[in-house]
Task: inverse folding
């Protein structure tokens, strides 16, 4: 994963104005600090020291801000998975660890991005595919297997984020066993 400040993905740098990037960065900081429910246009404007209507010059609505954050998550998770793939080509455990590590480092962004329908038409072209490609390659192009592995990884991560496992749960063992059962 590249060393960038939140909101400074290559995607954002290519398509956002400097002021829109500043707004996206502030939105990301607000989200990461306080969670999706705290991300309101009023709170975002307050953080930036402006009036909420000024935001509309750069983003038409809150959903557009959220789409930008989702795009950041897809870009950054793609970078994390691509890096893991470079270190250990074809390794599902390496990809799963990178996915888990990224999600746990950004739990509010992860939840915002995955707990509702994905706004595919609003995302940059090819970004979702890029994020999925390391897994697709590790699964030798088997779309059903890749979806099953992703569903397992997402389920494990979201349960961990929401504190649903007992304190004494051996999550490393659960990850290993789950991945092995999907891809012996």
Result:
């Amino acid at each position: 994963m590249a060393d960038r400040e939140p909101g400074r993905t290559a995607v954002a740098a290519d398509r956002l104005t400097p002021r829109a990037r500043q707004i996206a960065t502030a939105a990301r900081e607000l989200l990461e600090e306080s969670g999706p429910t705290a991300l309101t246009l009023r709170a975002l404007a307050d953080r930036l020291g402006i009036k909420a209507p000024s935001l509309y010059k750069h983003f038409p609505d809150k959903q557009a801000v959220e789409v930008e954050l989702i795009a950041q998550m897809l870009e950054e998770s793609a970078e994390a998975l691509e890096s893991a793939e470079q270190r250990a080509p074809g390794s599902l455990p390496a990809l799963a660890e990178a996915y888990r590590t990224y999600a746990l480092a950004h739990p509010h962004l992860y939840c915002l991005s995955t707990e509702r329908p994905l706004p595919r038409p609003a995302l940059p072209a090819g970004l979702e595919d890029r994020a999925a490609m390391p897994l697709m390659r590790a699964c030798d192009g088997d779309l059903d297997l890749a979806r099953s592995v992703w569903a397992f990884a997402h389920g494990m991560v979201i349960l961990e984020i929401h504190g649903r496992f007992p304190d004494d749960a051996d999550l490393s063992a659960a990850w290993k066993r789950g991945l092995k059962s999907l891809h012996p």
The chain is about 65% helix and 0% strand. The longest helix spans residues 62-87.
